[in-house]
Amino acid sequence: MPYQNLAEAWEADQFAGLRDRLKAIRDDARSGGEDYRILMPDSEKPYNRLSSWSSWLAQYGRFIAGEPPGAAKDADRIRQHVLEQYIEPAREEGASHVDVLVRDVNTALNLNEAWPNICQALAGKIFQDLAQVSAPERIGADQSSATVFRFGLDEPMASQNERPFTLFDSAGNPYQPVKNFNRSNGVSAYRIKPKGAGNKADEAIETKDMVDVARAMLVDGLASRVKAIAGGTVNYLTYGGEKLVRYQLDADIAKKIGVPASGSVQEPTKQVENTMAIAQQDERPTATSLILYGPPGTGKTFSTAAEAVKLCGEPVPEDRDELMAAYQGLLAAGRIEFVTFHQSMAYEEFVEGRQPMTGADDGEDTSSGGFRLETVPGIFRRIARRAEVSRGTVSAETKLSLEGRRVFKMSIGAKYLPEDAPLFEEAIEKNCAIFGFYEFDLSDPRFGTREAIHAAAEARRKEDPEAFVSQPASMMTNLFRNSLKVGDVLIVTKGNLLVRAIGIVEGDYEFSPIEGRAGDYAHRRAVNWLWVDRDGIEASDIAKVGLVQRTIYEIDKSSLNVPALERYMNSQQNEGPSEPEPFVLIIDEINRANISKVFGELITLLEPDKRLGQPNQLKVRLPYSGDEFGVPSNLHIVGTMNTADRSIALLDTALRRRFTFREIMPNPAVLKEAAARTGIDLPTLLTIFNERIEYLYDRDHQIGHAYFTGCDTRADVDQVMRHKVIPLLAEYFFEDWGKIAAVLGDLDTHDGPIEGGFLNRSVLKAPPGLDNGEAMQRFRWDVRDDGFDYARLLGS
């Protein structure tokens, strides 16, 4: 190569030429050539070393590009191990493909249950470029120890000409990426070639809209990294042949094209795969654990709404009504949960516990008059489960909704019958819904009504007295065969309390007997399973009312939490690595509960480095269910604490290392508008109050601005003072009315009656026998009956 050192090679083309040359030498060696002896004169098996050199160049390129050191350590080990131990040996043997079992990689590298990390490393574009393979076929379970990746070794890599779009300049020439290119260089418009168009300039679409350009770059991909688009400036970098795209977008542009405001995407090869996936696949989300603390009325609870919306990755509107609408939408979708702690709060309510259940579940005797103890997950475990199974969001163009669809609940195999367990797995594997009851073929068009189905069942009963027939069975069979339409949604339950799959019907009725089971469970409908979780999530997450035991029935949409159901329908649609959706748990008044009693072992699991997917991830076995449990990294926790209720020092030891504490104090400045409406200088009033409270008591018992923000008239301020502020001061100072009067500006140094702006003082007469001049002087304080006078307080 013509370079004196690696610095020159990087400056020239970011090592692309060097890596191409190493690949050419490797290909030459496979065909019997000896070009490799330029580098290794005595080697007889150069393939692995040549692959290693290519990998080292890629890693060094990432270092030069400024990626954080050590961030991809495990991922690089995984890729290198699979390349050297699987890909290269299989190529040397002339194999057409090679299978990689995730469990074997985890064991060989002595990793700690790093199934998701291994899957992400092997499914990504970085490994495909490194090993010169196409995207693998995924076999078996998703992101588990049993996942198998099958890499084809005789498939040619897609050429750069197969990109699904090209960017043209204003002259119609294909755009060549350069550094620091912007509109001031003379480009007045961009031309974007749509998918399927040819390479001629006249087939491109001209646009001056940066939104269109951004969508083309981000959604369709580009052989470069977009460093910035906001303001019309586009900077391009390429390195190591890895063709990654990183971006930072203006918030409005990001909202219009339906992508996060910042992130990374990958250049597609043979097809557009997961275009919004994180390019650096080993960057793990950092969990936020935050407590907002301060005196009452400072807006802590309201601040949690803005904080939660921001942590969910959504824009935070400045308008209060718009903010609360965004918050309520995320709350309805299950992305945010809100809980208030109290003195009776327990581990069983927060994490999991046993609760008595009456009635029946699938397979149980409905006539039983007793009850059973059922392990029920608490609010924390439910939202943690939602966060754990999320794979991210989909684009606005591909997002599914319930509009125009009916929703049906369906059971596939009874929960308590072991012989039925394979039915659900077969349904998922074969992308179909499986229905039981009658064992005869219903494909004939004459079975288009419930009456015809029931008549056929009755006719079979006459031939065989043991043949099954019932009106409910005929009704549900008719639902499955005739009422269920293509496009309808199926919710598959696990018992009556859990949901384990959601799908969309894609085909008409079919009769397909299972081998060895005659006509039993032979009725099928093709289904696209959108979401699957074999352990199941609480049915209450998506249904407002309890689901019942019937095998199949239509659910009225008014009985469903539609936003939550739609989120589940879209949450597993990203194939391959992707950034999961953020979830937020808000704990109001976190200091009112016994923290060690409520959190239990979660105190340890909440630490950021011990979350799932982190270097020091921990799991514990829960006492009631016996399940292994860890806290996902995409679950954020925001708490509030009223410092007037309990000292923060009582929480420091337990929570200081796990939580970030942010103080929220009274802000008189926000009362300027209320002051203009009421004619009272509320900012000054609040400042005086709090200075005096801090002098007489402490800074944790100040009065928050929220008490006055809703005041529109002087009468409103009087009501707040009479019914909220003065009673609060009485509580603070334990009915010491002298101190209360001092805060209100009504205390004088003399011992006579006082007519103050808020309080009146009268002198109490000593009882007979104590009026000889030796009795202590005592006073009665009364709150004024008429309107308050603020002049003395504000003028002092």
Which keywords apply here?
single chain; 796 residues; ph1033 like fold; five-stranded parallel β-sheet; flat; 5-methylcytosine-specific restriction enzyme B; AAA+_ATPase; Methyl-DNA_Rec/Restrict_Enz; ATP hydrolysis activity; P-loop_NTPase
What does this protein structure show overall?
With 796 residues, this protein is α+β, with helices and mostly antiparallel strands. Among the domains are: 6-152, no CATH class; 160-266, no CATH class; 400-559, ph1033 like domains (ph1033 like fold), CATH 3.10.590.10; 668-795, no CATH class. Helices cover 32% and strands 18% of the residues. The protein is built from 25 helices and 30 strands. Strands 18-21-20-19-17-22 form a six-stranded mixed beta sheet. Strands 14-23-26-13-27 form a five-stranded parallel beta sheet. A three-stranded antiparallel beta sheet has the order 1-3-2. A hairpin with a 3-residue loop joins strand 19 and strand 20. Helix 8 packs across helix 9 (251-257). The longest helix has 20 residues, at 73-92. The protein starts with 5 loop residues before the first helix and ends with a helix. Mean pLDDT is 76; it is low at 156-172, 174-190, 218-247, 265-284 and 361-368. It comes from Roseovarius litoreus. This is 5-methylcytosine-specific restriction enzyme B. It holds the Pfam family AAA_5.
